[in-house]
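Objective 1b. Sequence-to-structure analysis of SDR family NAD(P)-dependent oxidoreductase.
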Amino acid sequence: MRFSDKLAVVTGADSGIGRATAVRLLREGATVVAVDLKHTQPWPDDVVERVRPLDLDVADQDAAPSLEDYLRAEFQHVDVLANVAGILRIAPFLQVTRADWDRVVAVNLTGVFFLTQAVARIMVEHGTPGRIVNVSSVHAVVSEPNAAPYTATKGGLEAMTRTMASELAPHGITVNCVRPGATRTRMSEPIYTPEIVASLKAKIPLGTIAPPEWVAAAIAYLASEEACYTTGACLDVDGGYAMDGSLPGAAYS
């Protein structure tokens, strides 16, 4: 029960890593403001009383002010922010449209910036030693062909995390990120064809694709007091994907 009496805001909370993170924090005692475009799934009976669903498009210009107003009106403090919401648009680099670029940047980068700013203001005003966790991707450091806007935003998110960490450290607020690898979510399932899955399993040293709960466990750690001396860091949760330089099916002799 690391989060008893804590208030957490989790974006992208209707599915995937966001849902798994919200449930993990709830089951460890938190009250969770669950943010998503719309809420389509019921919450488990054992935690539903501490869920506060909030329909919000994180990319909307009014999202951050709306969230800030809601938190100020309903709660006395905010302890945790998990920025999990994210989108992916698949297209070859030469065919990426301005509309797709703008939408991916708005959700994955701009939305994170301004929602974090809104929540951090409240943390600073109340003297809360808050925990902010951003969700990056292994493709911040490993190329992903046909996903240039996505990889650009995840690389930018990691750089932004370090700067936020530097500026908020004097207030006792930590800012970290997790860097998931292949994970089964509503976003990834359409592109995980049998061929893609077989290729991923051959590439990943631990040989499997993660359920979102494995990533949520890392987010919960960075959001907890156990990570009080960690800030500006990025934790790989990728089965070894990013670090592995081996040649599948071959070896030096």
